[in-house]
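seq as requested:
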Amino acid sequence: MKSTSALALAFVVSTATASAQPVRWTKYTIPQTGTSMDFPSSIFTEEAGRPDGYGQRFRTADGRADLTIQAASNVENDSPAAFLAKKHPPSRIQYKRVTPRFFAVSSYKGDKVWYNRCNFSGRLIHCVLINYPAEEERAWDNTVTRMSLSLSGR
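struct tokens:
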């Protein structure tokens, strides 16, 4: 398991000017839906627009990675499995877990890893979508896990 300092070092944006510092975590909350998640605000420092529904997109200062925290109405009251099937995910998914309350999927697209987790509660779907360099996959593992497990909503 990597220490926080080692993990931060893996995310140094500009090796010429940045120094290794611990990752700073911030709780992001979507007021309209109660969706919340811990995210590494010292890594995702740039706002990058709004997704469909409610939420926010973020990216790293160098654009190598991006993050979307999002909530939307579950208009058709789909189960996680039904919702995922309607999205027609690629057949070559590397990781897939589907339960009655959430799904999590991950795979490769070009030189990126993409990860998507959506939790289902009532008539809302609370999601996190992350894209990051495949060559840094191991360095991202703990960060992605923390974000994923902290995702919640009312």
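Helices lie at 4-10, 80-86, 137-150.
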